[in-house]
Design brief:
It is built from 13 helices and 15 strands. The chain is an alpha/beta fold.
Length: 331
Amino acid sequence: MRRLDHFMAAANARYYAERDPFADFITAPELTQVFGELLGLWAAETWRLLGRPDPVLLVEAGPGRATLMADALRAVRAVAGDFAGALRLHLIETSPRLRALQAEKLPGVTWHETLAALPPGPLILLANEFLDALPIRQFVRRGGAWSERYVAGEAFVEVACPDPPALLAETAPPDMPEGGVMEVAEAARDWVAALAARIVVHGGAALLIDYGPAQAAPGESLQALRDRRPAPPLADPGGADLTAHVAFAPLAACARARGAAVFGPLAQGVFLARLGLFQRSGQLARGLPPKPAAALIAAAQRLAEPDRMGLLFKGLAIVHPGASPPPGFEM
């Protein structure tokens, strides 16, 4: 029997080491090159707002096949040569198999197992659908107290939890119903706290894009995908991608508590539209035959429309205190 977060961490470590995740799900960079291009130009403009530090680390956490970063660098080299000359490329990636794929697209990159392993200095960090794969804990309200979910075989087992984490008390509503479930993302909170602390000390900014609610709320969101279809999350550990919704408010509060400035969360559709999603997609579509042009516009709509990815997905920016709002987050 293992606590849910320990089960999820082990299952995802095995999954990313052994399987091709893009056979099971598709992310925004794989839908359209425009997503990565816009984030690359976001990084360049944010770098200028930070005073053009040279050198600066350009970092991606959870880079997958490196599609996002390859598109970002292409855009940067085309229109932001000053930033291209200053950046030093680093990836946070634990999977040897994915590192091999990334090396094919990004020669000269440096890899790290953890955020803490990055060298000192200012950074611009991008993380798209990274936090949702970090392990969570689940707590169930029983008789006025809390029980925690453990995993035994393919089933949950509830274990009395007389000393629940402080974050649970901060996020659970006072009228939590009997049998209600609260998820606590300690791993994501710790990661964001470390990131914010580093930005305060060394300078820089981060853009975190993921899916989930602005505020933490009761409910369970643990899910698994296999072959792009929902799968039982406790069956076949390592055989499917395990994720959970990201509650942004606790992460924003954590970053502010470390002294960083925080902007957002902002709906992805609004954010990308402000960066020029539809203008750039239309520009590219004009040079394509009808079928791929239509697919490009459809991908932009999928990213931005509220009933698809535009509202569920959100962006959160963490920047050095006193810095101007980064692109897309201006009021």
